[in-house]
Amino acid sequence: MNTMGGYTLLRRISSNSDFSRLKNRPAEPGQQYQPTDVEHLANVISHGVWILPSVLALIFMVCVSVNGLQVTTTLVYGSALVLLFSTSTIFHILSYTGQFPLWRRTFHIGDRAVIYIFIASSYTPWLLLKEFHSWSEEFLCLVWGMALLGVSYAYLYHEKYKFLEIIFYLIIGVCPAICIMDMKDLSGLVELSIGGAMYIFGVVFFKMDGVIPFAHAIWHCFVFVGSFCHFVAICSHLLGVNLPGF
């Protein structure tokens, strides 16, 4: 079954099920999807509950760092993690209340832009703390350059060219992985791959608003699982901390 056929089948199943009342129609081109009340709540909760754990993860990584470079890289990744969950939660709260349209638009743009920052931040500890055969510094500049271009794109073309937006997310998320394969020590690659796969699979639900109920909240869950895998990888393979059970 091709992608378009699968998308059409999901729409038919969803529209004919009892769950259809839990979602609205897909957004028109250039328009924002309007979640139902229960979807709004799911969107808020599915990222809001991870704000405090992300703050604790940031503090933990900084505390177990043994040199200035580790502190810097964990601050970059941990801060981006906190920013990701908090920006998303604030945006969805504003969307749910329907108040403060200017702030809602600002945080909506921020919600999309911070994804680029988070992707670049996820690569930063590996590109700085691991030894590579070559090109690690160049790839670090490249991934942050791509992130800044992504932020500019989110600001300039908000809610336009949505398919192109997904392509940009995938490009900045997947292409730097080529450099990661050039690490002299490939420890941590399994956790990185699992985390990356969670983000990629989650993108499917990212584009399913109005097709299946709670699609965006499901996407949020994939983001958490992916970020947790990367957190474990950073602690275990870059900071030398053995987390219980891992």
UniProtKB/TrEMBL annotation:
Transmembrane annotation, as ranges: 49-69, 75-97, 135-156, 163-183, 189-206, 218-239
Membrane topology, as annotated: Multi-pass membrane protein
Main location as per UniProt: membrane
UniProt-annotated location(s): Cell membrane
Protein name: Monocyte to macrophage differentiation factor 2-like isoform X1
Family label: Belongs to the ADIPOR family.
Transferase among keywords: no
Record bears the keyword Transmembrane helix: yes
PANTHER family to which the protein is assigned, alphabetical: ADIPOR/PROGESTIN RECEPTOR-RELATED, LD03007P
Keywords linked to the UniProt accession: Cell membrane, Membrane, Transmembrane, Transmembrane helix
GO terms assigned for molecular function: pore-forming activity
